[in-house]
């Protein structure tokens, strides 16, 4: 049951259309029927997936029985969920006991539940199982990732707007922010403020376990190849070992520095990913420029292959097999800290699947969205290369974050 009691005085809320929510649930059920024909019930806990299916990310759970209406049970805040969401069945919940009473009345609890095993903590599941005594747990992560990978026109419209903001800020405004003596932290905070002012939703969300991110990697020179736990080609010093985010307060911008800006931008939950580089005060050595330009060529070649029907693994192999041994040294990382992909899906998370890498053999579909990021570390200079976000089409990748090749001169 849904209680529609608008909360007077709240700002205008842009809600996900009901038709969009219904289509997502329909696609989920179809995917489950294909991959797990015997499924009977799935339960969603993660806030990102709750938002995807219901339009709100309040604390609670979404119960999806195979043959009955799905219900969003909300612990906190039920009132906000009703304000934000057009989902048809939203119920308040003080504890799991409230939900099991309704479910057990409707039907007998099956033996197996499908859960987001990649993100649900064991302790949470144990509390849940106290009232929902399922005998078996099976993962539902791959099925959700598969339907989220193909974006609707509604989702693509948000991604295009994020890309427009991203392009404008990184290509047109960042050059004017750079000044000698500023720190990486200075640039990061100024950049974050401008992105939010222009429409960025203020978060950069990752699926990688226990990953904190405010903005991305904003680095001067060698900072961009400093070791980090983050699963990407670039690095950064960060503020301190306890918070390796934003950038160093101590690394100041000097003439001759490479400036490396790899940040996300999002609108209403949907992210684009973009890397732009700048030459501050003077040009880089020609050999570094040549390496950068080769990375740009690799991006463009990979983008031309982002066609429906091609597979990510084919694209990865086609690119990597044509690169010579010398160039492969420090490509997609630095030293022994290299990643084994050329790009990744983006959407509600910056690091979504599929990935342009070996092992991803399912054909691309129109409406998938990828960030391509060929990059190469250079000792004593930093990380050169590029990253932009592309929509898969029948003709190839459609770039939505701009076409500037980077190494923008600022002097």
From TrEMBL:
Using the record for this protein, list the coiled-coil segments as residue ranges, or answer none. Answer: none
**Which UniProt keywords are listed?**
Aminopeptidase, Hydrolase, Protease
Alphabetically, the GO molecular function entries are: aminopeptidase activity
The answer to whether UniProt assigns keyword Protease to this entry is: yes
**Domain Peptidase M24 spans what residues?**
158-394
> Per the database record, which ranges form the Creatinase N-terminal domain?
39-150
InterPro entries, alphabetized: Creatin/AminoP/Spt16_N, Creatinase/aminopeptidase-like, Creatinase_N, Pept_M24, Pept_M24_MAP, Peptidase_M24B
This chain's protein is named Xaa-Pro aminopeptidase
């Amino acid at each position: 049951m849904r209680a529609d009691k608008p909360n007077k005085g709240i700002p205008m809320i842009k809600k996900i259309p009901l038709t969009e929510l219904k289509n997502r649930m329909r696609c989920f059920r179809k995917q489950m029927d294909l991959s797990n024909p015997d499924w009977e019930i799935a339960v969603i806990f993660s806030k990102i997936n709750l938002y995807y299916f219901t339009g709100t990310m309040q604390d609670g759970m979404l119960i999806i029985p195979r043959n009955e209406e799905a219900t969003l049970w909300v612990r906190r805040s039920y009132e906000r969920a009703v304000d934000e969401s057009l989902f048809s069945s939203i119920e308040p919940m003080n504890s799991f006991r409230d939900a099991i009473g309704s479910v057990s009345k409707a039907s007998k609890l099956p033996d197996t539940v499908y859960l987001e095993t990649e993100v649900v903590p064991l302790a949470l599941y144990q509390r849940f199982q106290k009232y929902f005594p399922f005998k078996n747990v099976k993962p539902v992560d791959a099925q959700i990732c598969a339907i989220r990978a193909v974006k609707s026109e509604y989702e693509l419209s948000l991604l295009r707007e994020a890309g427009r903001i991203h392009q404008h800020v990184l290509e047109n405004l960042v050059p004017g922010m750079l000044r000698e003596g500023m720190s990486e932290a200075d640039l990061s905070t100024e950049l974050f403020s401008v992105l939010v002012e222009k429409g960025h939703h203020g978060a950069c969300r990752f699926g990688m376990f226990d990953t904190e991110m405010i903005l991305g990697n904003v680095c001067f020179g060698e900072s961009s190849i400093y070791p980090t736990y983050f699963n990407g080609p670039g690095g950064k010093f960060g503020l301190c070992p306890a918070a390796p985010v934003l950038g160093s307060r101590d690394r100041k911008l000097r003439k001759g520095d490479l400036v490396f800006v790899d940040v996300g931008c999002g609108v209403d939950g949907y992210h684009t990913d973009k890397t732009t580089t700048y030459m501050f005060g003077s040009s880089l050595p020609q050999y570094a420029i040549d390496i950068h330009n080769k990375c740009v060529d690799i991006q463009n070649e990979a983008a031309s292959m982002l066609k429906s029907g091609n597979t990510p693994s084919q694209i990865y192999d086609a690119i990597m097999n044509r690169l010579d041994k010398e160039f492969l040294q420090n490509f997609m990382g630095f030293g022994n800290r290299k990643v084994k992909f050329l790009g990744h899906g983006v959407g509600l998370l910056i690091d979504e699947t599929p990935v342009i890498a070996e092992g991803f053999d399912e054909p691309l579909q129109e409406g998938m969205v990828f960030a391509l990021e060929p990059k190469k570390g250079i000792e004593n200079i930093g990380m050169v290369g590029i990253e932009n976000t592309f929509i898969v089409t029948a003709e190839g990748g459609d770039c939505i974050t701009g076409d500037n090749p980077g190494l923008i001169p600022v002097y």
